[in-house]
Design brief:
By secondary structure, the chain is an alpha+beta fold. The chain has one domain: Muramoyl-pentapeptide Carboxypeptidase, domain 2. About 55% of the residues lie in helices and about 15% in strands. The chain has five helices and four strands. Strands 1-2-4-3 form a four-stranded antiparallel sheet, with helices on one face.
């Protein structure tokens, strides 16, 4: 094999999935190492700072790749959410609210929480991260978009993962 240019479409798609799993594994390894050194609160704060930067970078790259323009609104955000690395790893869906003025995003499965459960660890308190990550991602797609948390661990019912609502501030 001489590299990616020699791979079939199916092999390339499989490789993209592998890269997404590697990305998430690195994030988890990093977090656990920081948690061991600085405790959960310290790790959460550093993770929040990292996700604030990464969410903006990821959104800008998706926006450019998908040619979403600068004021694509909630339709652009829906497309961008479907192109995040998470979309390759977790089951998720979007639904529209009344008159398509609200977009709701739900994570139906979460590899992070599934892995923690398998290891006997408590649910990851990701709300602190999500409250930075999702508004940053959405506002990078279109600065008019505002974000509201519907639920997110630890403030989510058992077996439920994060849910977010997006709307345009006119």
């Amino acid at each position: 094999m001489n590299g990616y240019q020699d791979l079939s479409r199916e092999q390339l798609l499989e490789a993209v999935g592998m890269f997404a799993k590697n990305w998430l594994a690195h994030d988890g390894c990093w977090f656990l190492a920081v948690e061991a050194e600085q405790g959960m609160d310290g790790a959460l704060e550093l993770d929040r700072q990292a996700w604030e930067k990464f969410a903006a970078v990821e959104a800008r790259r998706i926006k450019q790749f998908a040619r979403l323009g600068d004021d694509g609104g909630l339709e652009a955000l829906e497309k961008a959410l479907s192109l995040r690395m998470y979309a390759l790893l977790n089951e998720q869906h979007t639904e529209w609210g009344p008159e398509r003025r609200v977009l709701r995003f739900t994570m139906d499965s979460c590899r992070v929480h599934d892995a923690r459960e398998r290891k006997g660890l408590p649910p990851f308190p990701c709300k602190a991260i999500g409250e930075t990550e999702f508004p940053t991602f959405a506002a990078t797609i279109d600065p008019r978009i505002k974000t509201r948390c519907l639920r997110c661990p630890p403030d989510a019912p058992a077996g439920k993962y994060c849910g977010w609502e997006f709307y345009l501030e006119e």
